[in-house]
């Protein structure tokens, strides 16, 4: 369900102020979920795991509350990450939807299109997009700032290094079990939760407020990228948000951006794991762009696929 369909429910036109109010209310819910609900869920899950794994629960919780995670087992860290994602992007938006949208989560997953075909095409689109996006990734990571922005550059680099260290820790898998847990948290849970918030809710609210779906897509993609607090990955993530936004607009169902998001994160994790197991020499974590000829070919294929997707699932629907 996108905002255009939302406008036609019971032939009622929703005021832009309602969209504006809902947007900021949702932000408060997400922040509350991130700061309050998420940590509680994470600590509960970590405590349950610790009791079965023979980990000292008291010292574990003390370390979590103090912010010292240096001696925390990786599985515990992954469960804390899962708790944060559940709190901010699943539980909080679910409460918001029930209280303010007066809907059920299932309403956002309705589909009137050939869903298997849409999912297949969107998955291929994401893989091809990753080749094109590799150029933006390399460019973004090598941006330098003028002297008067030295303070921001220092902060951005420190934050990037801090988050990169945590990402490397969470994606260094010592067993297939750790990989499966990581896949569920980083790929599956992130795809579902983030798409509910940024596409299902924020994009619709912003599009409704500005009466323009394209403005909604761009602003939601901007927030989606900015909230990760990684400037040196901002632009490729912003483009990814645009891609998910248009796939959602054209398909009219959250299934498509969720699966597209899952393919992006899941493919990356699988390639990381295969490289760690020395099953492939390709290291997807390296910020090197694909060869120029591969990028050109991928760009042509990407444009053709997006054109097909729009004509097949959006224009045919709006012409009815």
Automatic annotation (TrEMBL):
InterPro entries: Rce1/LyrA-like_dom. Residues 179-266 form the CAAX prenyl protease 2/Lysostaphin resistance protein A-like domain. It comes from the Bacteria. Keywords: Hydrolase, Membrane, Metalloprotease, Protease, Transmembrane, Transmembrane helix. One of its GO terms (molecular function) is endopeptidase activity. One of its GO terms (biological process) is CAAX-box protein maturation. The chain crosses the membrane at residues 20-50, 76-97, 117-137, 179-202, 214-235, 247-274, 290-309. It holds the Pfam family Rce1-like. This is CPBP family intramembrane metalloprotease. It comes from Marinigracilibium pacificum.
């Amino acid at each position: 369900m996108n905002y255009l369909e939302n406008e036609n429910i019971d032939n009622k036109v929703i005021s832009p102020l309602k969209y504006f109010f809902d947007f900021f209310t949702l932000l408060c819910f997400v922040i509350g979920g991130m700061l309050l609900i998420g940590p509680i869920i994470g600590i509960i899950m970590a405590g349950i795991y610790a009791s079965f794994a023979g980990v000292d629960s008291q010292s574990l919780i003390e370390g979590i509350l103090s912010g010292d995670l240096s001696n925390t087992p990786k599985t515990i860290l992954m469960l804390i990450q899962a708790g944060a994602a559940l709190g901010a992007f699943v539980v909080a938006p679910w409460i918001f939807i029930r209280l303010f949208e007066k809907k059920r989560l299932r309403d956002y997953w309705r589909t009137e299109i050939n869903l298997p075909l849409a999912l297949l095409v969107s998955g291929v689109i994401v893989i091809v997009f990753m080749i094109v996006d590799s150029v933006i990734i390399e460019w973004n990571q090598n941006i330098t700032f003028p002297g008067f922005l030295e303070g921001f550059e220092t902060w951005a680099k420190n934050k990037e290094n801090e988050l990169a260290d945590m990402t490397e820790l969470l994606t260094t898998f010592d067993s297939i079990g750790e990989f499966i847990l990581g896949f569920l948290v980083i790929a599956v849970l992130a795809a579902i939760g983030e798409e509910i918030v940024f596409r299902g809710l924020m994009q619709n609210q912003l599009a409704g407020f500005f009466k323009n779906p394209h403005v909604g897509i761009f602003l939601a993609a901007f927030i989606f990228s900015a909230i990760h607090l990684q400037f040196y990955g901002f632009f490729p993530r912003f483009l990814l948000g645009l891609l998910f936004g248009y796939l959602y607009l054209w398909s009219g169902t959250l299934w498509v951006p969720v699966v597209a998001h899952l393919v992006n994160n899941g493919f990356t994790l699988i390639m990381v794991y295969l490289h760690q197991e020395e099953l492939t020499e390709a290291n997807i974590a390296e910020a090197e762009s694909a060869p120029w000829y591969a990028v050109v070919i991928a760009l042509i294929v990407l444009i053709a696929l997006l054109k097909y997707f729009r004509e097949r699932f959006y224009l045919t629907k709006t012409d009815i």
